[in-house]
Amino acid sequence: MAYIDGFVIAVPTHNKDKFTEHARHFDALFIEMGATRILECWGDDVPRGKQTDFYRAVDAQEGETVCFSWVEWPDKATRDKAMAGMEERMKSDPRWDPAKNPMPFDGKRMIFGGFVPVVVLDAPSSR
Question: How far is Cα 29 from Cα 119, in angstroms, rounded to an integer?
């Protein structure tokens, strides 16, 4: 069964191109590790709530855009294997080196988690 890692971050709006470049770089590496699909989404219609919202979840500041992303894995075992080797990759593979490939956002305010799909509904193909 598929497994999903979800992420919400606040990115300085002026860093949109840097964010996109960063995402393309690292998403390709996740695909190498077995991910089957990745979506990086730039906030376009993100309402502010009265009690909770995406902005508060990541402590978004003036001039930042909320981004929502997810990584689809074929199963949790593939995801766990990929994540287990992350620290070693950061030391041994320069493509993962955060000093050479810094995040264009404050990673301390990222929220993330792993999720098991409970409903999957695909639209019928349009032929």
Answer: 28
Residue 8 lies in a domain: no
In this structure, what CATH number is given to the domain that contains residue 71? 3.30.70.100
| Residues 23-78: tens digit of each pLDDT | 999 999 999 999 999 999 999 999 999 999 999 999 999 999 999 999 999 999 99
- Which regions of the chain does DSSP assign to beta strands (E)? 3-12, 37-42, 64-73, 111-115
DSSP 3-state assignment of 112?
Answer: strand
**What would the 3-class secondary structure string for 60-84 be?**
CCCCEEEEEEEEEECCHHHHHHHHH
Domain limits for position 68 = 13-115
- Number of domains present in the structure of the chain: 1
Residue 36 resides in a domain: yes
CA 46 to chain centre: 17
Give dist(CA 65, CA 70) in Å, integer.
Answer: 17
How much is the pTM? 0.89
Per-residue pLDDT, 127: 63
Three-state DSSP class for 36? coil
